[in-house]
Sequence to fold (226 residues):
Amino acid sequence: MSEPTIISHSLEPRRGFHSTLVTKIGLDSPAPDCSVFALYTFPPSIIIDRYELIDRRLSFEFWGESNLELPVFAVNQTSNSILLLNATSTDSRSKDVSVNIPIHARYGVPIVGQLTRCSIEIAPPICFWACPSSGSSNVTPESMPPTFSSERPIAHSTMLQASSRFLVSAPSSHHPTLLEVPVASLDDLSRVETGTATIILVAFLWLVYHSWRVANALQSHHLKEQ
Fold:
């Protein structure tokens, strides 16, 4: 039994505020009593909607900003989001498994210039086996290779049993995948402000005019009744 490996790590599509992160994990000689996990770290500019993951019937734990409406400059820039996902295949004989995670980008900080796109790096996950070492399992500490460890890859998880042993993959050779998202240009600020003020003024005058017409019509109808 060897550590799980990342076969591919990509985004579909690679541009826009909404995408799907697709990770294919290779499982060499999977053990029937073990589970494979993927541990993702996302930058503050990425949104993970836990309800989408629930709808996809994924088994996961998530730690991160829960307010999905905040722009990136309103989020703590030193606090990454962490997603632990049970990626165990329903087919115990499968040699690989694909994990699809819907992701969304927060609105970015407006910039000066005409380059109205920015790139967000999303690193590949850390993958590992979690194997029980007691009970009815066929896997015991004595039968495990020395590369197995009792130290949990993430300490505060309730999905990982304290009695389990873990085989963590080596750092992936895959480069972070990039999500390109549009951002506003400060060069357009004056035009946007002027256009917004003009539309609001026109809408206000339209309401005043139609209110005046309705008031005149009601007054005329009231005078006729008298």
Observations:
- The radius of gyration is 27 Å.
- The chain has two helices and eleven strands.
